[in-house]
Structures are given as C-alpha cells and as structure tokens.
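Obj.: predict assembly geometry.
Materials: sequence records (below).
Method: joint structure prediction, all chains together.
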Amino acid sequence: MTIYRAQVLDAPEDPFRDGALRAEADAGLLVTADGQIADRGAFAEVRARHGTEPVCELTDGLLLPGFVDTHVHYPQARIIGDLGMPLLDWLDRSALPEEARFADLGYARDVAAEFVSGLADAGTTTALVFGAHFAPAVDALFTAASARGLRITSGLVVSDRLLRPELHTTPERAYDEGLALANRWHGQGRNRYAVIPRFALSCTDDLLASCAALHTAVPGSWFTSHVNENTAEIETVRDLFECSYVGSYDRHGLIGSRTVLAHNVHPTDEELERLATGGAAVAHCPTSNAALGSGLFPLHRHLTHRVPVALGSDVGAGTGYSLFKEGLQAYFMQRLRGADGVPLTSTHLLYLATTAGAAALGLEGSVGDLSAGKRFDALWLRPPPGSPLDVGLRSASGPEEALARAFAQGVSSDVAGVWVDGERIKPDMMS
Ligand SMILES: [Zn+2]
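Observations (raw structure tokens):
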C-alpha cells in the first residue's frame, strides 16, 4: 500500500444543492495495491495509523479526482480547431471526411493512440467516447485505451442516411457488429459498451429500433447520442420524425437511466421533463457550443427540471481535451446568459468535471471523488515553478480561490501525474 500526501480537493456533494468543496491542505490517502482508497484523513493521522507504508509526496499543487469526460469523439482527434463553421457545414467539410478515413485500420490505430494520450495527459481518467463508424476502428480504440489504462465506455457509431455513403450501415449490420464488439469488450477490464446512433438526423426508425434491441441485448450497456444542438438540425429532425428530438429516441425506449445525450442547447420544457423522468443525463460541451455557434446552454432550466448535467469536451468540435478549459467555458457561458445564467463557482466546475460525470455514467460508487472506498483515480495539478498558474496557486487565499485559478489557467502540461485504479498512467510508463 502507498500513502499519497497532497493538498486534496474534491466535490463529493452536489454544490447545486448546497454541497461544499471538500478541501484538506495536508491530506493522506492510503491506497491499496489494487487501487482502492482504504483510508483518508489528515496526513499525520493516516501516517500514524499506517506507519510502515511508504509515502508518495505530491508536494505543491493540487490533487483532484480524475476528470470524467462524458462526450468526446475519438475519430476527430486530428481535426480539433477547424473553426468557422456551424454544425452541419462542419460535419460535411471537416468531421465526416476525416471519419471516413477510419476504414483504414492502420490509420485508426495511429489516431487511437493519439486520442488516449490526449485524454490521459489532460487528467481525464474516465470517458464516454463516440467510437468510429467502422468496427475494426472501434476495436482499435478499446485496445489502445486498455493499453493506457483508461476507464472507457464506447462503441460503434451508426447511421444509415444523410451522411456519406461509406459511413452508412444497415440495421442488421449495426446490430451484429455492435454485438460482436460488446461481446469482446463490455465488462472487460475497465471497458464498457455503449450503443451510439450518431444523431437522429442520420438514423432511420429501423436503425434506432436495432440500437434499442442491442441496448437490451447487452445488459449494463450505455446509450449515447446527440440532441438539440443546432436550430437547423432540430428543424430537420422534426421534419423527419414528426416529433421532438428527445421523442425520436424516446419512441424506441432509448431514454433511460443509462442514457447520456450531448448538448441539449435548445430543449423544450416537455423534453427536459421527459429526460428528468427517464433519468437521462446531459453532456454539456461548452467550447463546442461556442466554436460552432450552437448557443448558450440553458443550465438553469436543466437544474429546474432536475436533469443531471456533466461536462464533455466534444473533441473535435470542442477545442481540446482539458476539462479545465471546458469548466472555464461553462462558467463564461453562464456569465454571458445574463439574468438567467447560473453563477458558477470553482466548486461547481469541479463537481461538473468529476462527480457529476461519474454519476451520469453510473460510476458514482467507484469514481468521481477521493473518499475512502473509492478507486484511486486522480490527477495531480502541479504547474512549472514560477509559471503564472504556480504563482496563482501559491498566492490564493483559500482552496476555492486556488481551484478557480486552476480552472482559469490549467492546461494539460500542468498535469504532472494521473492515476487510474492506483496505476500511474501519466507520465506514460509504457513509452
Ligand atoms: Zn459530439
């Protein structure tokens, strides 16, 4: 066992319901050989209780729970930063041509390695990942994620209309290929399977029905897709299905407690009510929403309807892997909403990036905070000595202020260490 000594901050209780930041300036976390936090407290007390165990000193900086990214696209790793287009143009001109390249397994393997490095380097330890439209490329992702040690929920992305022909499948093939992938990866190591129609716009009812059948056939599988991102997209979905965007999934039984829908920038009250009663969560992707001009996320309405919200980077419409940046952009977005924006504190941002994400993925019993009994999934933010963030952390008057500075200035290169299940995955010991 190992005692990790650090300044530890986490947000186990929902700050939207009066939960406070939990901050310990000199904490000790006793972690077992298999990665569970067995004891937690003031370092001196933990040391006294377990005097013979070695101590890992994480001097300076902050130890935080590993980030949970609830919406990120692996085949878009190389197109981050294609700015200047709204959603449907960006798909046609940037995302879909790139995603067609994943028919080439060698290309997919190269990007899969880059992608998992991007997540791990950012301090993201758990992610709900949009896979590729090609089954071998999804296999490559699970292989790469397993090698690096990430906690991944992912699957084959399926569509059968309105994209490019090479990205289309059939309901039967979608089911068969998805089941084969799930049989290989679901519940293996830290991997779980997700059923992923790209978005209702590019899926017929027959394909969504096959997704529902697969979701039922794979117990414990997750369901994820996009919803209500862009007004032009929403109008098309309404024309195609003659119902609401949420309704297009709901009529196939796809709104439930293992559902995460990305964006939801323009929901109706009825849709929010249905998400709440179904127990579905929303992945809020603020840099993507800003980059594509999709809109200002109505967080207040989600909170009012009690729809769970977590953060997603939405790489590559989003502008990077770091949930520090997404947290900051979420804060900006609420500021810019004016009177109905939700004033977010640094505690809210940490909660959205960790505990809320774990809950959205049904992993709240094991990750999301650094309580005794949880897995040791953590990131150590330790900026270079003398850097602006280092100066900011050292001069902060308290933990909330230090955390705000971390979200304002933190980048992946400030993350000096990352652990999943107690295994250090950054620096990458394999490379
Ligand atoms: Zn997306």
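Conclusions so far: The pocket of zinc ion is lined by residues 71, 73, 226, 262, 314 (CB under 6 Å).
To do: check interface contacts against the pulldown list.
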